[in-house]
């Protein structure tokens, strides 16, 4: 409801109105505020050329407005600061088709990725964090965050290689040796 007052520009008489015939209600929400809570993966030891690795991260929207998610990804680094260095060229990362596109105010979502380790990936510890971006569903303003409160890591090793220096037959009969 509102009160309006003013002056008629022709007669200079005061005019006013108290109360509207039709009222409306507006809800004011705090803006969407995203936070990446934790990044997690099960293997602690992975090998070059390994495929099918799963990495997940949890995102919370502590604002009241919903957040439209426009992008998300993983970040790999050999530095624990996670903002230095970029080892993403060591991995192929595929997002799940079920990843959220909207996180309601006060809500949360889990994002999942399948990772393939390239054969040329840098050996050693890789720290895994994430990025997420979107916009406030009410205002359209940008909301994004890089890095997680809790990140994960794995140790990247060379893939196993089997080699034979000699093969002997126990019965000394020439023929084919089968290795199972």
Structure description:
There is one protein chain. This protein has 180 residues and is an all-beta fold. Helix content is 0%, strand content 46%. It is built from no helices and twelve strands. Strands 4, 6, 8, 10, 11 and 12 form a six-stranded mixed sheet that branches. A four-stranded antiparallel sheet has the order 3-5-9-7, with no helix packed on it. Strands 1-2 form a two-stranded antiparallel ribbon.
Layout of SSEs?
Blueprint lengths: L2 E5 L6 E5 L15 E8 L3 E3 L5 E9 L5 E11 L13 E5 L6 E2 L4 E10 L6 E13 L5 E5 L5 E6 L23
Parallel strand pairs: 4-12
Antiparallel strand pairs: 1-2, 3-5, 5-9, 6-8, 6-10, 7-9, 10-11, 10-12
Succession of helices and strands:
EEEEEEEEEEEE
**Structural class, from secondary structure content?**
mainly beta
Total DSSP helices: 0
User: What general form does the structure show?
Assistant: rod-shaped
- Estimate the helix proportion, in percent: under 10%
Main beta sheet? 6 strands, mixed
Sheet-strand content, in percent, reads over 45%
Q: Care to count the β-strands?
A: 12
Mean pLDDT across all amino acids: 87
Query: How far is it from the N-terminal to the C-terminal residue, by CA?
Result: 84 Å
How much is the radius of gyration in Å?
A: 30 Å
